[in-house]
Amino acid sequence: MDEPFGALDAMTRQGLQDEVLSLTAASNATVIFVTHDLEEAIYLGDRIIGLLPHPGRIGIELSVNLPRPRDQLATREHPEFLRLRRELFDFIKETEA
């Protein structure tokens, strides 16, 4: 999936994020999800791969060990969520320099 929620309003986006989590849990499917939204990557993912530019190569790989089922508020307030967001943010800032 390549940024399927990019043009949606926040509430619709969150509802569809939860729907994707429900569908993948029910089907045991693997989904590769492309996004520039750090919080979306953490909320939906089990593993996050950050790419470096020119040419694209793996710059960081993070495991997401957040409890399931995920919740739009509680998950985003979880200390591990906040730690991962900071680590990804720092990675992006470093690669832009």
Report on the architecture of this protein:
This protein is an alpha+beta fold. The protein has one domain (10-96). It is built from four helices and two strands, in the order ααββαα. A two-stranded antiparallel sheet has the order 1-2. α2 (38-44) packs across α4. The longest helix is centred in the N-terminal third of the chain and has 18 residues, at 10-27. The chain is globular and about 40 Å long. The model has no long low-confidence stretch (mean pLDDT 94).
Task: Explain briefly what this protein structure is.
With 97 residues, the chain is α+β, with helices and mostly antiparallel strands. The protein contains 4 helices and 2 strands. A two-stranded antiparallel ribbon has the order 1-2.
Described by its quaternary structure, the protein is single chain
Tally of DSSP helical segments: 4
The tally of strands reads 2
Helical coverage, percent range:
40-55%
Shape: globular
What structural class results from the helix and strand content?
A: alpha+beta
Alpha carbon gyration radius: 14 Å
- Give the terminus-to-terminus CA distance: 29 Å
Structural domain tally? 1
Widest sheet: strand ordering: 1-2
**What's the order of the H and E elements?**
HHEEHH
Sheet-strand content, in percent, reads 5-15%
Low-confidence stretches: none
Largest sheet: 2 strands, antiparallel
Q: What is the mean pLDDT? A: 94
